[in-house]
């Protein structure tokens, strides 16, 4: 989640639109120190929910020789500080700040949460429930606390899996980010990208429109979104179940290390694979854009306000400017 939240201008793009290539997203992380902000965010999250719990547990257990109840109570009190701050900051930008109307989903009211807010809240609930329960028991349960990251994986990855299996088939009676009620949901990676870039990355409503247009006009982009949703959803659910099973069938020292270490290994490997796959597919998309099977339109049926329609028209005019 980048701290660089400046509002971009559609007409300040450094590159002009080439009609032989896909519509541009008009957004880059290679400006305003966004790359550094993203790196700092992931490093601090990794320290908070990966490195710190492992160092504290084994140093207190083997060095200070405190019992598990005191050990896990100390760990629980330290986890969640930075992530809580980032979620609060994100809520400020989305709901309260003067520019919140530029960051909210298309057609959403002022206090309508985006899909990522709901999904990350479910994940954090899954994370803190075993953490708090396990450390509150007397004596504390190391096996229960070791489930924290795995439960986060299950809660966060389940929407990715089901929307990837049935893209645009599932409908819910409430708004999901820019998708109106009872509209077929795209694979969840679509809303994750839209919401994080628009809110945390400062892409605002301009990015939401450009992302919608790119997704609707590119069969390869839709394939990228679906495959990445399926990979993260399926691998996360399966491995989380395996991590929980191992954590409960091994000694405390082993189970705790597996529960707090292997989920990060999965995330790092999956992220590297995702970057490689997306870059490969984007290159293919650019090379094969003239193919009718690639430049194939699909409508998301997103309802928009008059102001949002004006922004959509501006994005389209920008994309067509050099035709």
UniProtKB/TrEMBL annotation:
Protein name: Uncharacterized protein
Transmembrane segments annotated in the record for this chain: 36-60, 111-133, 145-166, 230-248, 254-278
Keyword entries, A-Z: Membrane, Transmembrane, Transmembrane helix
Keyword Transmembrane helix attributed: yes
């Amino acid at each position: 989640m980048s701290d660089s939240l400046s509002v971009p201008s559609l007409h300040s793009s450094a590159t002009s639109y080439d009609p032989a290539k896909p519509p541009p997203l008009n957004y880059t992380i290679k400006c305003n120190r966004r790359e550094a902000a993203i790196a700092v965010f992931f490093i601090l999250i990794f320290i908070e929910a990966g490195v710190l719990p492992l160092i504290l547990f084994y140093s207190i257990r083997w060095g200070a020789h405190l019992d598990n109840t005191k050990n896990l109570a100390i760990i629980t009190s330290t986890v969640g500080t930075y992530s809580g701050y980032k979620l609060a900051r994100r809520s400020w930008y989305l709901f309260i700040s003067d520019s919140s109307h530029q960051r909210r989903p298309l057609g959403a009211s002022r206090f309508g949460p985006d899909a990522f807010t709901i999904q990350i809240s479910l994940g954090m609930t899954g994370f803190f429930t075993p953490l708090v329960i396990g450390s509150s028991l007397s004596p504390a349960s190391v096996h229960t606390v070791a489930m924290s990251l795995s439960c986060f994986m299950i809660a966060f990855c389940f929407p990715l899996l089901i929307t990837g299996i049935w893209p645009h088939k599932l409908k819910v009676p409430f708004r999901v980010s820019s998708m109106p009620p009872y509209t077929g949901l795209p694979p969840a990676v679509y809303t994750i990208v839209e919401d994080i870039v628009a809110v945390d990355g400062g892409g605002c409503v301009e990015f939401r429109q450009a992302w919608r247009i790119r997704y609707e006009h590119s069969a390869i982009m839709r394939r990228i979104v679906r495959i990445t949703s399926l990979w993260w959803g399926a691998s996360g659910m399966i491995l989380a179940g395996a991590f929980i099973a191992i954590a409960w069938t091994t000694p405390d020292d082993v189970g705790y290390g597996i529960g707090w270490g292997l989920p990060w290994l999965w995330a790092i490997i999956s992220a590297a694979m995702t970057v490689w796959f997306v870059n490969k597919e984007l290159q293919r998309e650019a090379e094969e854009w003239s193919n009718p099977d690639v430049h194939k339109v699909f409508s998301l049926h997103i309802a928009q306000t008059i102001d949002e329609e004006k922004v959509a028209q501006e994005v389209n005019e920008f994309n067509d400017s050099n035709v």
